[in-house]
Task: structure prediction
Amino acid sequence: MGSIRAVVVDPSAARGRLALKDVARPAALPFETLVRVKAFSLNLGEVRRAQTAEPGWRPGWDLAGVVERPAADGSGPSVGARVVAIMGSAGSWAEEVAVPNLALAELPDSVSFAEAATLPVAGLTALFALEKGGALLGRNVLVTGASGGVGIFACQLARHGGAHVVGLVRRSERARYAHEAHAHEVVVGENLGGAERFAPYDLILESVGGKVLTQALTMLKSGCGMCVLLGASSGGEVTFDASRFYLTGGVNLFGFELNEALLHTPGSVGLSRLVQMLDMGVLRPRIEVQRPWQETATTAHELFHERKIAGKAVMLVE
Ligand SMILES: NC(=O)c1ccc[n+]([C@@H]2O[C@H](COP(=O)([O-])OP(=O)(O)OC[C@H]3O[C@@H](n4cnc5c(N)ncnc54)[C@H](OP(=O)(O)O)[C@@H]3O)[C@@H](O)[C@H]2O)c1
Result:
């Protein structure tokens, strides 16, 4: 059977509770493809979870790599194919993974492993969360956390879909991230005051929580406005004016969770669409750092504790 190396939660590790360790080589089920990982990206959610997870937990949802052994049932790509995948059950930060065929998509040569590795969680979340709001043509869309992995993709996709896009970033030095992601307007601050002048919104993609969510719920368009809540980066406890919310009339608050969304649309379908848009130049991942995977723990620390990294951090597996 043999062993491979993987990033594993280790509370005694010097940095980020993460260490590279030997683990058992994955055994693929008949509908799973064995993939040699070439790159993965870090997401705030999994890095946050690694801070409290039990020893031995293996983080990692995103990966791109090469098919080592095709699925035994004959479905899926052939040996040597370049693929991107999402591991719903985590564990992608490893040399080899077994991925269900419904969670992977093939890559054209024009898309690098590093670019592809940014897509799974951040890209699928942006894509599926935007689709909760329906058609985008001529709609007014607000994206909070617009300097982050999800936010940057969401601004690009909403703009491509024909929406008027307003992005919220909390620090002025990161306003350019949202501008480069084609937001028409960029509002800076730890609250949504500056976004009021562009309200009401047909759709708000909200990931900051706290005061920002409280304010977002007052800025929805009567009769159709929807707030898709997908994160709470600043904290989960929120108070809001319930009367004002319901008296707006016909507005919705939707709780989005990617694994739940993947029950309705397989990752392979969403990833194929994202790959195509990357290939067409509609999507441009902002890769802020690209490092050897031996530096995963340090990079996770910078992402989570120091908030030094905006956009995506990609680790290369050699
Ligand atoms: N529901 C789901 O299935 C799902 C899927 C993916 C992600 N998420 C969640 O969505 C959020 C965004 O994920 P991500 O991967 O894009 O993270 P990210 O790359 O770290 O981006 C986070 C964004 O939120 C901003 N932010 C963080 N803390 C803030 C605060 N206290 N006040 C105001 N802005 C703040 C950041 O601004 P700075 O650049 O200034 O730090 C950045 O723009 C996270 O909470 C994540 O857990 C949920």
